[in-house]
Amino acid sequence: MRHLFGIDSRVLTASAVVVLVALAAGADQEVTITNPGFEQLEPGGVMVGWRLVDGAFSDGATLTGDGESVHEGVGSVKVAVKGHGTVTVESDPVALDVGKLYRLSGWIHTEGAVSDPMSKYPTAVPACLSMEALPFTIHSPAVGGDSDWTRVDELFIATAASDRVRLHLGYNGTARGTAWFDDIRIEVVDDISEYISPETVRWSGDGFRYDDQGWIFVHIEGEPYERGFQYGSLMPDEIAEYIRKLGVVQYREDPETGWDTIRFEADALFLRKYDDEYLTEMKGIADGAADAGGEAWERPIDLRDIVALNSVVDIGQLYDALEVTPNSLTGQAFVTPDEELDIDIDQHKCSAFLATGPATRDGGIVFGQIFMWSGYTGMHWNVITDVVPSDGYRLVYHTFPGGIHSGADFYLNSAGIAFGETTVMQTPYEANSTPQSNRARKAAQYAASIDDVERILWEKNNGMYTNDWPIADFKTGEVAILLLGTKEKKLWRTSEDMSPFGTPGFLWANNNPRDPEVRKEYVAQP
Q1: What is the residue extent of each domain of the chain?
Q2: pTM recorded for the entire structure
Q3: What is the DSSP letter of 35?
Q4: Residue 525 in this model has a pLDDT that exceeds 70
Q5: What is the CATH number that goes with domain 50-188?
Q6: What is the CATH number of domain 340-371+408-522?
Q7: What pLDDT, in 10s, does the model give residues 509-524?
Q8: In DSSP terms, which residues pair with 41 in a beta bridge?
Q9: CA distance from start to end of the chain
Q10: Domain 223-330 carries which CATH code?
Q11: 233-270 as b/e: b if 16+ CB within 10 A
């Protein structure tokens, strides 16, 4: 059954990623907003249901009711700043259903409203509408200059059950001038085609794909081979281009030979270490891509190509891992302490944080992570994959074309588990074990608790891609960080002793292997 226009009750939502939305058929419904036409004033002229946001308005900014310049009715709200400044006004809380699609709309009139032309990123805009819980990049079209009443609207997917409408003059920067706002509305949008044009959706069996603002959203489902075939047939060109670029990175003068080297390494070291489920899924991706015309150097994409794509992260860590992997001379000193100090240490840059309980405003979980990668191939890490497997939980992850795992790493599943990773120094390689790409995907698909994530990542651990793994359980509100070496590991969780963090409810990962037992695995081998 195709699910574009009605995903089942396990639909996944998160503040950073919402793949698709479960919407019921029916007429659009309006959400209750206190005093949306700005016609109610308290004694003294205070606007009912609206207020200036603390810390979001400049000296001299004003908020007043206006009975002369109105769009409809007898009132509007007028905001102004002196010189270049900013002012934000917000509503009383409005009730929303998380995961539903809404349209925020209103009318704006401006006089002399000009944003700061010297602002860089984010780009400052004059007058606009937004929602408190949404990222700063999501706001209505801006109105500026001398503009008569102009209707603006913005579609958004609710990420909070209680949110607030915000009115801005000078957003993401400063502005000057005056703006009036009137007739603010929020409506439930029941027709998903208003958000995703059906003409842009490509299908493969029960799988589908659509593109949105540079991101590629892929939904697949079913048995391993079936869902893999859907994936490959929906992304043959992107898989082929990513393969080509990885070949260039390996050997710029002869990319085909470079890619053959990666294929050989993946085949020799990792292919036979994958679980049957994921090897079968990769076989499906290869066959689907080849069936849709996907080629690497004028030959059809095959299983070894897809295994290599999913093993590149492990392969990239192999050189560092072998430097600290024990051999028969381990334990004998051949360098002086002073010489050891001169050994270069790579500086990894990914970082993440988890907050819950006393560290957040509402006691809920906040999870943030940045992903750093070479820009040449990193531009292809623009895929959001939504998997409904025949076994396990539904999962969503950020990845590259052809990825059965994230690599970025950010995962979310329908059991309420989310986790990511930040690299630390590489620990030894354990040859007769399972690739991290297999274990990370398996944890995302089958874990229902923090303990499950730890167990699956630890089982048959090959040590590659040594990481702090931030983990969140949205069912219990608990967060944790798992430092996973090769033979050693350490789990910090907010329900237990959090030393050395010392910040109740707040954990962070910044490429620092904090556990002394894991650090011992970094001893260089002779």
Answers
A1: 50-188, 223-330, 340-371+408-522
A2: 0.76
A3: S
A4: no
A5: 2.60.120.260
A6: 3.60.60.20
A7: 887 888 889 888 877 6
A8: 47
A9: 59
A10: 1.10.439
A11: bbbbebbbbbbbbbbbbbeeeebbebbbbbbebbeebb
